Amino acid sequence: MNKIKICNGHTLFIDDNYITPRHSQAVYNHSPDGFSFGYCGSGPAQAALSILMEFTDKITALQLYQKFKQDHVAAWKEPDMVIELDIKEWIKQNRGQE
After folding, report:
1. Range of the domain at 9
2. What global pTM score does this model have?
3. Count of domains in the chain?
4. For residues 18 and 81, what is the distance between their CA atoms, to the nearest angstrom?
5. Are 52 and 68 contacting, i.e. CB atoms less than 8 angstroms apart?
């Protein structure tokens, strides 16, 4: 299980490691302002892409991040929360369904 921590509605940690949006913005810049959560917009898309890029290759992350956003990131409504999620298992279950 992975621990995803959201702070102040815009800061993201995965397993206590700070995740910056810069890496995923270089691949696809949905949100120049960075991450957001709790709806199906550009900030959550950037967060979903960043999360998946931590666990899989760029091509797979690009294929799956919109579904990951819909399945998970859009539902994270609290500005400060911790989510337990097996991200590699989610990728495994959804690969090939893009």
Report:
1. 2-94
2. 0.95
3. 1
4. 15
5. yes
